Amino acid sequence: MNANLTLIVVASTLIGTGVYLILERSLTRVLVGLVMMGNGVNLLFMIASGPAGTAPIVGAGSGRMADPLPQALVLTAIVITLGTVAFLLAMAHRSWQLNEHDDVQDDVEDAAIRRLADLDEASDSHDLSLSATEADAATDEVYEEEGSS
Predict the structure, then answer these.
(1) Is the pTM higher than 0.85?
(2) How far apart are CA 40 and CA 84, in angstroms?
(3) By C-alpha distance, which of 102, 119, 123, 115 is closest to 146?
(4) 94 near 104, Cβ under 8 Å?
(5) Whether 110 contacts 146, CB under 8 Å
(6) Residues 85-110, buried b or exposed e (16+ Cβ, 10 A)?
(7) Is 115 exposed, middle or buried (0-12, 13-18, 19+ CB in 10 A)?
(8) Could you say which DSSP state residue 122 is in?
(9) Whose CB among 48, 53, 76, 131 lies 3.0–4.6 Å from 66's, allowing a Cys bridge?
(10) If we measure between CA atoms, which residue out of 41, 46, 47 comes closest to residue 17?
(11) Residue 123 above 60 pLDDT?
(12) Is residue 5 within 8 Å of 13, Cβ to Cβ?
């Protein structure tokens, strides 16, 4: 197989940039990263399909026939990406309406679990300066904060 190195580099760059943008907190950056990563994967599908051939419908005449499977996979990936983009656009629009920005906020429950892990004696992040009664009091305080919010 004779693959074009330029297309492989472009696909790798699209996927790498897309992954970097997906890890951001802004939903618009996540959206752009998702589109870039989807296009990079679609390009890799087409690169992996090999060189162009004749249409399978025309007949088994001269030359090599094209494999329709990578084209079907790319078409399916485009439809799935379109649905995901529509969902992310709706989330970003709603976030903008509510908060005047589209940054994803920290989850309150995740923060409470992180604080409980910091206070847990069996955890790797155990702070030896706290006694057992202080840790129990801090745990009760975390649960009381969850109940009030």
Answers:
(1) no
(2) 16
(3) 115
(4) no
(5) no
(6) eeebeeebeebeeeeeebeeeeeeee
(7) middle
(8) T
(9) 53
(10) 41
(11) no
(12) no
Length of the chain measured in residues: 149
Q: Residue 19: what are its φ and ψ, rounded to 5°?
A: -65, -40
- Structural contact between residues 63 and 45, judged by C-beta atoms closer than 8 angstroms: no
**Amino acid code (one letter) for 55:** A
Please name the amino acid found at residue 110: D
Distance CA 121, CA 118 (A): 8
Q: How much is the pLDDT for 109?
A: 82
Tokens representing 24 are: 């951001």
Joined tokens for residue 74: 């790319």
Measured between alpha carbons, how far is 38 from 93 in angstroms, rounded to an integer? 22
pLDDT tens-place string over residues 7-41: 999 999 999 999 999 998 888 899 999 999 999 99
Q: Which residue has the tokens 């492989």?
A: 8
Rg of the Cα trace of the chain? 25
Smallest CA-to-CA distance from 35 within 83, 97, 75 is with: 83
Residue 1 amino acid letter: M
- Write out the two tokens for 27: 């939903």
